UniProtKB/TrEMBL annotation:
One of its GO terms (cellular component) is cytoplasm. PANTHER family: PHOSPHATIDYLCHOLINE TRANSFER PROTEIN, START DOMAIN-CONTAINING PROTEIN. This is START domain protein. It comes from the Bacteria. It comes from Leptospira neocaledonica. Residues 23-192 form the START domain. GO terms for molecular function: lipid binding. Pfam families: START (PF01852).
Length: 213
């Protein structure tokens, strides 16, 4: 009987924090889950890209061009580059009326698994790097991008827990938590075909995996 209750104890947290499939379309899946201590759901978007690893890294490193493929992004720039692996990025997102625009300051850290070749950009919120702006609500982002070579494709994972700050209607919050990863990954598929990313110089810290035969 003790073993039975112990198994139930282990299963309950898994049920509470399990991922729920919200959308599956155009080769993109979006899952969400409830996170303890947060009023907002965490999202995880996944897809596969027919592109090489360096092309995708070049796209992600081009911060100002986020406005062309990140959902609702109105402005993005690297405000402080620490080294080739770490930087602080300022992002401003538009929001539907009557909600104020949001902005975020994040610390991104590049790392690569030497065994699998998978590249991860860890995303952490930071304070006191960019002053808050009148009429724009400061939020936080925490999560990661992961790019894992699988055969001749790259498996992309975009996982974020966001706190948009201020007051956001639940209906809007529940909509964007699915819409943002889906629309962003959909646009990403288009952007990696652009020649300026395909022909970009190799990232100095990137180890390119062997070309699949």
């Amino acid at each position: 009987m003790k073993h039975f209750y112990f198994i139930i104890f282990l299963l309950v947290p898994m049920q509470i924090f399990s991922w729920d499939l919200e959308k599956e379309k155009n080769g993109i899946t979006v899952h969400t889950r409830v996170v303890e201590g947060s009023d907002f759901k965490e999202f995880r978007g996944k897809t596969k890209l027919k592109a090489d690893l360096n092309t995708i890294i070049a796209l992600l490193e081009d911060n100002p061009n986020y406005v062309t493929w990140f959902k609702d992004c109105k402005h993005a720039e690297a405000v402080k580059v620490l080294n080739t692996r770490e930087k602080y990025i300022y992002i401003q997102n538009g929001a539907p009326w009557p909600v104020n625009d949001r902005d975020f300051v994040i610390h991104t850290i590049f790392s690569q698994d030497k065994n699998t070749g998978a590249v991860t950009y860890t995303i952490k919120p930071v304070a006191n790097i960019v002053a808050e702006k009148k009429g724009i609500v400061r939020g936080t982002l925490k999560g990661f991008w992961k790019f894992a070579p699988v055969g001749d494709e790259i498996e992309v994972t975009y996982q974020i827990l966001s706190d948009p700050g201020g007051s956001v209607p639940t209906s809007i919050a529940n909509f964007v938590v699915v819409d943002i990863p889906y629309e962003t990954l959909k646009k990403m598929k288009e952007k990696v075909t652009e020649s300026k990313y395909i022909n970009s110089p190799k990232h100095p810290d990137l180890i390119l995996p062997p070309v699949p035969k």
